[in-house]
Amino acid sequence: MKENEKKLSESLEKYLLAIYDISKNNSNIIVKDVSKYLGIGSASTATAIKTLAKKGLIDYVPYGNITLTKEGMNLIQLKIYRHNTISTFLNQVLEIEKTSADKNASAIEYSMTQDVLIKFVHFLDFMKQCSCREPKWLNSCKHSLKDGQISKKCTNCVSGKGGCNGCCSG
After folding, report:
1. Is the predicted pLDDT of residue 166 greater than 70, yes or no?
2. Cα separation of 69 and 23, whole Å?
3. Coil, strand or helix: which one is 78?
4. Distances in Å between the alpha carbon of 147 and those of 91, 142, 150, 151?
5. How far apart are CA 85 and CA 141, in angstroms?
6. Rounded to two decimals, what is the model's pTM?
7. How far apart are CA 167 and CA 159, in angstroms?
8. β-sheet bridge partners, residue 67
9. Are 20 and 68 in contact (CB under 8 A)?
10. What is the dihedral of CA 143, 146, 148, 149, to 10 degrees?
11. Domain 10-70 fold
12. How far apart, in whole angstroms, are the C-alpha atoms of residue 156 and residue 160?
């Protein structure tokens, strides 16, 4: 999935996500709804809403309803896709508990530069779609995570002595 997104701060993304979440059950969203949803003051929320409107991600007039624009909806869908891809990797591949995987996925997203994040999500998406399904090196990594040690068949690969014993190739 290509990532053509406007760079938003973590805070602005949270406002945009809140609008998206609220819109699932309410088509008449006002600043007070977003403020209450996030537990943030109305003045701060109004400022963020105005910023999102200036960026063309929402339609908003003061004291009126807030709606996502097509561009805003595309950005939210991309954000959700990116988050779910990272969270799924953490949960299913690294076997991190779901709640922790979700929390850490968010931290990972905001700790990387945009160019690295795009390549990271592309790699995870590629690995998910790859016909190899689960390369041998991934199984070896899972074994290492569980046992705390590298398997004997990987010793040559890691030490650089004697070449690979087949643990790395698909």
Report:
1. no
2. 12
3. helix
4. 18, 9, 8, 9
5. 19
6. 0.76
7. 13
8. 59
9. yes
10. -20
11. Arc Repressor Mutant, subunit A (1.10.10)
12. 6
